[in-house]
Amino acid sequence: MQIWLPRRFQIYQLFCVIIIASLMLTSPLWGQRKKPKKPSTFHWVNELKLKSPGVKHATFRSASMNLDVGYCIYLPPQYSVVKNVKKRFPVVYYLHGGRPGSETKSVRLAKSIHKQISSGDVLPMIYIFVNGGPVSHYNMPDRENAMGEDVFIKELIPHIDKTYRTIANRNGRAIEGFSQGGRGTTRIMFKHPGLFCSASPGGAGYATEKRISEDNGRENKNLIFTPGYNTWDLARKYAKHPKPKLRILIHVGTKGFNYENNLEYMTFLESLKIPFQRLIVPDVPHSAARIYEKSGLTIMKFHEESFRRSGAI
Question: 231 near 238, Cβ under 8 Å?
Protein backbone atom coordinates (compact mmCIF):
# COMPACT_ATOMS: atom_id res chain seq x y z
CA MET A 1 0.00 0.00 0.00
CA GLN A 2 1.50 3.34 -1.02
CA ILE A 3 1.06 6.45 1.06
CA TRP A 4 0.99 9.63 -0.95
CA LEU A 5 2.43 12.66 0.82
CA PRO A 6 1.53 16.25 -0.02
CA ARG A 7 3.75 17.66 -2.74
CA ARG A 8 5.08 20.37 -0.42
CA PHE A 9 6.27 17.74 2.05
CA GLN A 10 7.98 15.75 -0.74
CA ILE A 11 9.86 18.87 -1.88
CA TYR A 12 10.88 19.65 1.71
CA GLN A 13 12.10 16.07 2.21
CA LEU A 14 14.17 16.25 -0.99
CA PHE A 15 15.65 19.57 0.09
CA CYS A 16 16.78 18.07 3.43
CA VAL A 17 18.41 15.13 1.69
CA ILE A 18 20.34 17.49 -0.63
CA ILE A 19 21.54 19.64 2.29
CA ILE A 20 22.72 16.63 4.34
CA ALA A 21 24.50 15.10 1.35
CA SER A 22 26.21 18.40 0.61
CA LEU A 23 27.48 18.73 4.17
CA MET A 24 28.80 15.17 4.19
CA LEU A 25 30.62 15.53 0.86
CA THR A 26 32.30 18.80 1.86
CA SER A 27 33.36 17.53 5.27
CA PRO A 28 37.08 16.67 5.59
CA LEU A 29 36.01 13.56 7.51
CA TRP A 30 33.89 12.19 4.66
CA GLY A 31 35.12 8.81 3.57
CA GLN A 32 37.58 8.58 6.46
CA ARG A 33 37.30 5.82 9.00
CA LYS A 34 38.19 6.53 12.56
CA LYS A 35 41.70 5.28 13.02
CA PRO A 36 42.24 2.99 16.00
CA LYS A 37 44.30 4.50 18.76
CA LYS A 38 47.87 3.33 18.53
CA PRO A 39 49.34 1.75 21.67
CA SER A 40 51.85 3.95 23.44
CA THR A 41 55.46 3.30 22.58
CA PHE A 42 57.58 2.46 25.58
CA HIS A 43 60.88 4.17 26.37
CA TRP A 44 63.06 3.81 29.43
CA VAL A 45 63.87 7.55 29.13
CA ASN A 46 61.14 10.13 28.47
CA GLU A 47 61.25 13.89 28.12
CA LEU A 48 59.86 15.90 31.02
CA LYS A 49 57.64 18.58 29.50
CA LEU A 50 55.69 19.62 32.59
CA LYS A 51 57.52 22.15 34.69
CA SER A 52 56.94 21.92 38.44
CA PRO A 53 58.77 23.59 41.35
CA GLY A 54 61.56 21.45 42.71
CA VAL A 55 61.27 18.77 39.99
CA LYS A 56 64.02 17.73 37.63
CA HIS A 57 64.61 14.83 35.28
CA ALA A 58 67.65 12.56 35.52
CA THR A 59 68.90 9.18 34.35
CA PHE A 60 71.08 6.35 35.56
CA ARG A 61 72.74 3.49 33.71
CA SER A 62 71.05 0.14 34.24
CA ALA A 63 73.71 -2.55 34.68
CA SER A 64 71.24 -5.34 33.90
CA MET A 65 70.10 -3.84 30.58
CA ASN A 66 73.09 -1.64 29.66
CA LEU A 67 70.57 1.13 29.02
CA ASP A 68 69.84 4.53 30.50
CA VAL A 69 66.72 4.69 32.68
CA GLY A 70 64.88 7.91 33.45
CA TYR A 71 63.34 9.12 36.68
CA CYS A 72 61.95 12.40 37.97
CA ILE A 73 62.88 13.72 41.37
CA TYR A 74 61.28 16.33 43.58
CA LEU A 75 63.69 17.97 46.02
CA PRO A 76 62.08 20.07 48.77
CA PRO A 77 63.26 23.68 49.19
CA GLN A 78 65.12 22.72 52.38
CA TYR A 79 67.39 20.38 50.43
CA SER A 80 69.45 23.20 48.93
CA VAL A 81 69.73 25.36 52.06
CA VAL A 82 73.43 25.88 52.79
CA LYS A 83 73.17 25.10 56.49
CA ASN A 84 71.47 21.78 55.61
CA VAL A 85 74.25 20.40 53.39
CA LYS A 86 74.70 17.43 55.73
CA LYS A 87 71.02 16.90 56.45
CA ARG A 88 69.43 13.75 55.01
CA PHE A 89 65.82 13.42 53.93
CA PRO A 90 63.26 10.61 53.82
CA VAL A 91 62.14 9.42 50.39
CA VAL A 92 58.76 8.51 48.94
CA TYR A 93 58.89 6.40 45.75
CA TYR A 94 55.80 7.08 43.63
CA LEU A 95 54.60 4.44 41.15
CA HIS A 96 52.56 5.83 38.26
CA GLY A 97 49.35 4.41 36.81
CA GLY A 98 48.79 3.09 33.30
CA ARG A 99 50.82 1.01 30.88
CA PRO A 100 53.49 1.20 29.59
CA GLY A 101 55.77 2.98 32.02
CA SER A 102 57.02 6.56 31.97
CA GLU A 103 58.73 8.49 34.72
CA THR A 104 56.76 11.61 33.71
CA LYS A 105 53.25 10.22 34.21
CA SER A 106 52.63 11.32 37.81
CA VAL A 107 54.85 14.40 38.04
CA ARG A 108 51.76 16.66 38.10
CA LEU A 109 51.35 15.61 41.76
CA ALA A 110 54.53 17.50 42.61
CA LYS A 111 52.60 20.79 42.60
CA SER A 112 50.46 19.62 45.53
CA ILE A 113 53.45 18.03 47.25
CA HIS A 114 55.46 21.25 46.96
CA LYS A 115 52.57 23.33 48.30
CA GLN A 116 52.22 21.22 51.46
CA ILE A 117 55.96 21.12 52.16
CA SER A 118 56.53 24.81 51.41
CA SER A 119 53.69 25.81 53.73
CA GLY A 120 55.22 23.81 56.57
CA ASP A 121 52.17 21.57 56.90
CA VAL A 122 54.37 18.49 56.47
CA LEU A 123 58.07 17.88 56.98
CA PRO A 124 60.30 17.94 53.88
CA MET A 125 60.58 14.73 51.87
CA ILE A 126 62.12 13.72 48.57
CA TYR A 127 59.75 12.22 45.99
CA ILE A 128 60.97 9.92 43.22
CA PHE A 129 58.71 9.32 40.21
CA VAL A 130 59.56 5.88 38.86
CA ASN A 131 59.48 4.50 35.31
CA GLY A 132 57.61 1.21 35.75
CA GLY A 133 58.87 -0.55 32.61
CA PRO A 134 57.00 -2.01 29.59
CA VAL A 135 54.35 -3.69 31.79
CA SER A 136 54.32 -1.12 34.56
CA HIS A 137 55.90 -2.27 37.82
CA TYR A 138 55.91 -5.96 36.88
CA ASN A 139 58.83 -8.26 36.13
CA MET A 140 58.36 -9.88 32.71
CA PRO A 141 61.29 -12.33 32.40
CA ASP A 142 60.08 -13.65 29.04
CA ARG A 143 60.47 -10.21 27.43
CA GLU A 144 63.62 -8.29 26.65
CA ASN A 145 64.44 -5.41 29.02
CA ALA A 146 61.12 -5.69 30.84
CA MET A 147 62.02 -6.31 34.49
CA GLY A 148 60.26 -3.22 35.80
CA GLU A 149 60.21 -4.25 39.46
CA ASP A 150 63.86 -5.33 39.55
CA VAL A 151 65.08 -2.16 37.84
CA PHE A 152 63.26 -0.16 40.52
CA ILE A 153 64.24 -2.24 43.55
CA LYS A 154 67.75 -3.41 42.64
CA GLU A 155 69.02 -0.45 40.62
CA LEU A 156 67.03 2.77 41.05
CA ILE A 157 66.86 2.74 44.86
CA PRO A 158 70.63 2.15 45.29
CA HIS A 159 71.31 4.88 42.71
CA ILE A 160 69.11 7.38 44.55
CA ASP A 161 70.73 6.58 47.90
CA LYS A 162 74.19 6.99 46.38
CA THR A 163 73.41 10.20 44.49
CA TYR A 164 71.22 12.21 46.89
CA ARG A 165 71.18 12.92 50.62
CA THR A 166 68.59 10.33 51.52
CA ILE A 167 67.97 8.41 54.71
CA ALA A 168 69.28 5.31 53.00
CA ASN A 169 67.49 2.58 54.89
CA ARG A 170 64.00 1.24 55.51
CA ASN A 171 63.30 3.77 58.27
CA GLY A 172 63.40 6.66 55.82
CA ARG A 173 61.80 5.03 52.79
CA ALA A 174 58.15 4.90 51.68
CA ILE A 175 56.31 3.58 48.62
CA GLU A 176 53.10 4.92 47.10
CA GLY A 177 51.21 4.60 43.81
CA PHE A 178 47.84 4.84 42.12
CA SER A 179 45.83 2.52 39.84
CA GLN A 180 48.41 0.31 38.09
CA GLY A 181 50.87 1.89 40.50
CA GLY A 182 48.58 0.95 43.38
CA ARG A 183 48.78 -2.66 42.24
CA GLY A 184 52.55 -2.35 42.03
CA THR A 185 52.79 -0.73 45.45
CA THR A 186 50.76 -3.51 47.04
CA ARG A 187 52.75 -6.33 45.44
CA ILE A 188 56.11 -4.73 46.19
CA MET A 189 55.31 -3.76 49.79
CA PHE A 190 54.35 -7.35 50.62
CA LYS A 191 57.24 -8.82 48.64
CA HIS A 192 59.89 -6.41 49.99
CA PRO A 193 58.68 -5.26 53.44
CA GLY A 194 62.30 -4.88 54.53
CA LEU A 195 62.75 -1.93 52.17
CA PHE A 196 59.88 0.35 53.23
CA CYS A 197 58.45 1.48 56.56
CA SER A 198 55.41 3.12 54.96
CA ALA A 199 53.15 2.17 52.05
CA SER A 200 50.08 3.79 50.52
CA PRO A 201 48.50 1.99 47.55
CA GLY A 202 45.68 3.93 45.91
CA GLY A 203 42.87 3.04 43.51
CA ALA A 204 44.43 -0.34 42.73
CA GLY A 205 42.73 -2.82 40.42
CA TYR A 206 42.38 -5.59 42.96
CA ALA A 207 39.69 -7.36 40.93
CA THR A 208 42.20 -7.89 38.12
CA GLU A 209 44.82 -9.05 40.61
CA LYS A 210 42.30 -11.50 42.06
CA ARG A 211 41.64 -12.92 38.61
CA ILE A 212 45.40 -13.36 38.13
CA SER A 213 45.54 -15.20 41.46
CA GLU A 214 42.63 -17.49 40.61
CA ASP A 215 43.66 -18.19 36.99
CA ASN A 216 47.23 -19.37 37.53
CA GLY A 217 48.83 -16.02 36.70
CA ARG A 218 46.68 -15.18 33.68
CA GLU A 219 45.40 -11.62 33.34
CA ASN A 220 44.30 -12.29 29.77
CA LYS A 221 45.33 -14.59 26.93
CA ASN A 222 48.26 -12.35 26.02
CA LEU A 223 49.46 -11.50 29.52
CA ILE A 224 50.47 -14.24 31.94
CA PHE A 225 52.48 -13.64 35.10
CA THR A 226 54.39 -16.01 37.33
CA PRO A 227 51.88 -17.85 39.58
CA GLY A 228 51.77 -16.22 43.01
CA TYR A 229 52.96 -12.87 41.64
CA ASN A 230 49.89 -10.84 42.60
CA THR A 231 48.50 -8.77 45.45
CA TRP A 232 46.31 -11.56 46.86
CA ASP A 233 48.87 -14.37 47.06
CA LEU A 234 51.66 -12.07 48.26
CA ALA A 235 49.40 -10.77 51.06
CA ARG A 236 48.69 -14.36 52.12
CA LYS A 237 52.43 -15.07 52.17
CA TYR A 238 53.20 -11.92 54.16
CA ALA A 239 50.42 -12.69 56.67
CA LYS A 240 52.20 -15.91 57.65
CA HIS A 241 55.36 -13.97 58.59
CA PRO A 242 54.38 -10.29 58.95
CA LYS A 243 57.86 -8.96 59.65
CA PRO A 244 59.10 -6.35 59.46
CA LYS A 245 55.85 -4.64 60.21
CA LEU A 246 54.43 -2.40 57.51
CA ARG A 247 52.35 0.73 58.07
CA ILE A 248 49.76 0.68 55.30
CA LEU A 249 47.27 3.32 54.15
CA ILE A 250 44.90 2.30 51.34
CA HIS A 251 43.30 5.27 49.61
CA VAL A 252 40.51 5.37 47.03
CA GLY A 253 37.78 7.72 45.77
CA THR A 254 34.14 6.73 46.14
CA LYS A 255 33.44 7.54 42.47
CA GLY A 256 36.39 5.53 41.18
CA PHE A 257 35.70 2.39 39.17
CA ASN A 258 37.94 0.40 41.56
CA TYR A 259 36.12 1.58 44.67
CA GLU A 260 34.14 -1.61 45.31
CA ASN A 261 37.05 -3.96 44.72
CA ASN A 262 39.20 -1.85 47.06
CA LEU A 263 36.59 -2.38 49.77
CA GLU A 264 36.68 -6.11 49.02
CA TYR A 265 40.47 -6.15 49.30
CA MET A 266 40.33 -4.33 52.62
CA THR A 267 37.97 -7.02 53.92
CA PHE A 268 40.44 -9.61 52.64
CA LEU A 269 43.33 -7.98 54.55
CA GLU A 270 41.19 -7.91 57.68
CA SER A 271 40.57 -11.65 57.29
CA LEU A 272 44.34 -12.14 57.18
CA LYS A 273 44.73 -9.92 60.27
CA ILE A 274 47.02 -7.54 58.38
CA PRO A 275 46.59 -4.10 59.99
CA PHE A 276 46.06 -1.09 57.74
CA GLN A 277 44.42 2.31 57.66
CA ARG A 278 41.91 3.42 55.05
CA LEU A 279 41.35 6.77 53.39
CA ILE A 280 38.02 6.94 51.55
CA VAL A 281 37.75 10.21 49.61
CA PRO A 282 34.09 11.15 48.94
CA ASP A 283 32.90 12.04 45.44
CA VAL A 284 36.32 11.65 43.81
CA PRO A 285 36.73 9.62 40.61
CA HIS A 286 39.63 7.39 39.57
CA SER A 287 42.19 10.19 39.71
CA ALA A 288 45.37 10.52 41.75
CA ALA A 289 45.39 14.26 41.06
CA ARG A 290 41.87 14.74 42.44
CA ILE A 291 42.67 12.65 45.51
CA TYR A 292 45.75 14.78 46.15
CA GLU A 293 43.71 17.96 45.76
CA LYS A 294 41.37 16.81 48.54
CA SER A 295 43.45 14.51 50.71
CA GLY A 296 47.09 14.67 49.62
CA LEU A 297 48.11 16.18 52.95
CA THR A 298 46.57 13.21 54.78
CA ILE A 299 48.66 10.77 52.73
CA MET A 300 51.83 12.82 53.23
CA LYS A 301 51.20 13.09 56.98
CA PHE A 302 50.78 9.31 57.07
CA HIS A 303 54.28 8.87 55.61
CA GLU A 304 55.63 11.53 57.97
CA GLU A 305 54.23 9.65 60.96
CA SER A 306 55.75 6.41 59.65
CA PHE A 307 59.17 8.08 59.40
CA ARG A 308 58.75 9.50 62.88
CA ARG A 309 57.78 6.16 64.39
CA SER A 310 60.76 4.48 62.74
CA GLY A 311 63.09 7.09 64.19
CA ALA A 312 64.16 8.49 60.84
CA ILE A 313 63.01 12.04 61.66
Answer: no
pLDDT band at 269 (very low <50, low <70, confident <90, very high): very high
For the chain, domains (ranges, CATH) are 55-310 (3.40.50.1820)
- Eight-state DSSP code of residue 189: H
Strand pairing class (91-95; 173-178): parallel
Residue 39 has pLDDT above 90, yes or no: no
Contact 199, 187 (CB under 8 A): no
Contacts of 84 (CB under 8 A, 6+ apart): 78
pLDDT surpassing 80 at residue 13? no
pLDDT digits (tens, 9 = 90+) for 72-92: 999 999 999 978 788 999 999
- Which of 102, 107, 104 has its CA nearest to residue 131? 102
Please write the tens of the pLDDT for every residue from 209-223.
Answer: 999 999 999 999 999
Q: Which amino acid, residue 165?
A: R
E strand residue ranges, the chain? 55-62, 67-74, 91-95, 126-130, 173-178, 198-202, 218-220, 223-224, 247-253, 277-281
